Amino acid sequence: MPAPIRLRELIRTIRTARTQAEEREMIQKECAAIRSSFREEDNTYRCRNVAKLLYMHMLGYPAHFGQLECLKLIASQKFTDKRIGYLGAMLLLDERQDVHLLMTNCIKNDLNHSTQFVQGLALCTLGCMGSSEMCRDLAGEVEKLLKTSNSYLRKKAALCAVHVIRKVPELMEMFLPATKNLLNEKNHGVLHTSVVLLTEMCERSPDMLAHFRKNEKLVPQLVRILKNLIMSGYSPEHDVSGISDPFLQVRILRLLRILGRNDDDSSEAMNDILAQVATNTETSKNVGNAILYETVLTIMDIKSESGLRVLAINILGRFLLNNDKNIRYVALTSLLKTVQTDHNAVQRHRSTIVDCLKDLDVSIKRRAMELSFALVNGNNIRGMMKELLYFLDSCEPEFKADCASGIFLAAEKYAPSKRWHIDTIMRVLTTAGSYVRDDAVPNLIQLITNSVEIHAYTVQRLYKAILGDYSQQPLVQVAAWCIGEYGDLLVSGQCEEEEPIQVTEDEVLDILESVLISNMSTSVTRGYALTAIMKLSTRFTCTVNRIKKVVSIYGSSIDVELQQRAVEYNALFKKYDHMRCALLERMPVMEKVTTNGPTEIVQTNGETEPAPLETKPPPAGPQPTSQANDLLDLLGGNDITPVIPTAPTSKPASAGGELLDLLGDINLTGAPAATPAPASVPQIAQPPFLLDGLSSQPLFNDIASGIPSITAYSKNGLKIEFTFERSNTNPSVTVITIQASNSTELDMTDFVFQAAVPKTFQLQLLSPSSSVVPAFNTGTITQVIKVLNPQKQQLRMRIKLTYNHKGSAMQDLAEVNNFPPQSWQ
Known about the structure:
Layout: H1 7-15, H2 20-39, H3 46-59, H4 67-74, H5 79-92, H6 104-111, H7 116-129, H8 132-146, H9 151-167, H10 188-204, H11 206-214, H12 218-231, E1 239-240, E2 243-244, H13 246-260, H14 264-280, H15 286-301, H16 306-319, H17 325-338, H18 343-347, H19 350-355, H20 362-375, H21 381-394, H22 397-414, H23 418-432, H24 440-450, H25 455-465, H26 473-492, H27 505-517, H28 523-539, H29 544-553, H30 560-574, H31 577-583, E3 599-600, E4 611-612, H32 625-634, H33 657-663, E5 710-715, E6 718-726, E7 733-742, E8 749-756, E9 762-765, E10 781-788, E11 797-805, E12 808-816
Antiparallel strand pairs: 1-2, 3-4, 5-6, 6-7, 7-10, 8-11, 9-10, 11-12
Helix pairs in contact: 2-3, 3-5, 4-5, 5-7, 6-7, 6-8, 7-9, 8-9, 9-10, 10-11, 10-13, 12-13, 12-14, 13-15, 14-15, 14-16, 15-16, 15-17, 16-17, 17-20, 20-22, 21-22, 21-23, 22-23, 24-26, 25-26, 26-27, 26-28, 27-28, 28-29, 28-30, 29-30, 30-31, 32-33
């Protein structure tokens, strides 16, 4: 048989291929020749054939048929054969294939070989692909080589020991005696691998960490080595861009970070050397920046002095001015981690951080946006909001939703005045109205309702904002609601804050009718507009007939929701006109109630503490029986026994008594509402109006003092918490609000929460607030689950979580069985 071609010739031939098909043909032809040679047990050219096979494997072609030939080369006595054999084993074998166990004895023999280079090959192979069985069998040999005086073998044995510890953690104590003298070695290769080994042991075992802190006095040794590296002169063997062995410096800094975490004595011992590294390292080259970055991480993670932490943050501030995008990105990420603990120091770099919002790189933009929101407080709210609103105008669509939500939260916490708050939210709705969350509209309506002194100003601003532009639907919805509530103030021109505009009743109705017929208007927006027109029938005097005509037209709309509204409003005009003014009067001031107990965060970021929000009970007053009978008349209940109150109920005495009767004393303030004595009212088969479904009790119980929350899931940085509410309209319904938070350093995207319950329950899963769980616990995703439990059985649930994290798709299942009894009994 002719001699096979050499590896160099094969590479040259393959590179001449002009197409993929031509290359495949060459590879297949050569593989056939190699197989024939393997079958003939040709020992002369086995090494050459395996080398060619490894090259084909690196090109992506199958080479598994050469695994046994690698074992034969390993068993050879020639060094050149062993070298190719071990290389082939590392590339073609792993612990999932049983054939790798066949070379355990060969590795053991080579670890005791008289030639250091053969021993080095065996150590490299074991450290690369050794299974747990191989590691247990050969750990003793590795430990012997770790104590040898040969620096070449010690550095390879240390790295092999790292692999053994990862595979079999219980063998860690075997290597403890050998680590005592490792840091006294002058060879930098041994020092480097020794620090890697010590880092692995400290990370995997708290007992080892305590041992190295107290007994071995590891910190002073590391400080001495690091000081020698900094103060030593030029060493051509270890110099990289003028810095002595930066790789070893970075490894030592990482180990110091582990040793100093939550330990006062260790942190105190390394403060001085960290300050020296931070001040003496050259920053003109990327090598110096890498060391400074590790130094900053170490300073922030240990119990360092305040001055040292300020120095670290100033280094990150200098990184923000670097031309390298990667350096700017890691600086923003690090500042985002430290902003909660060192807020004032980070604030000094606010202008540089805001400048990063104009960067062309989207990753830097996102980190700068998140950090900008973290820096907002009561002192800089106006300036920061100006910059963030400018960013909202010009940023890409993928940023608008997160930016709008952040502006809403910051404005709610730190707004200097209600007028500024309303103007800011209106600016967001005008700029990015289609990207805001669903709760933006009700929150702004509540804010406007509570700002009694600027109703005229607000309705005039909103009227101007939607003239001829209905593209931003949330803005149109808020404007329609305000025009319906305060249309009389708009027409009267009573605005004092800015120059009033002259608007007639017909012009106001023209705008609302245009919203109704616009192709851009959604069904919800049309509902807002129709209700606003109906409300104006009690605020306008000259256009009531026109309003009646518009309402009657939509009584035959193909939109069922719009049709039902129009039919009910038509009935108010015809049959219940005497109650129309009371039903459509202005909404009262509303208190915002949070599910976990109302609190008002006046200032955060270290300015003031959260203060309890005072809840005002509704004023008590008698409920006239005639108004209750009017309500029954509206419901068409001529044969229903009138409701006779047996105890005083909580009612504000005003001209809107009939409206409050209709709403059934819905508890808007969070204070407990008085419940009237039950009356024998027969069930109506089909309520003729939507208003019939309103209950005379609060929709949900206040859970602050009732049902405790639970942690349903906590794994891989993702935490799911459940809070509970019980429905008063149906005691069998439990409303569960989930809150998902993320403590890792990267966002979790495409987050989907699914739940299943036994067949005796019924479950409804509402839409989540977002699909991205922000990193560093900077935000949460909320989602509502409604569970119907008619038999009052113990609640059990199985949840499924899917999301993308660090570029890979994650999926997990979990059982939730620890529901508090109050949530289902």
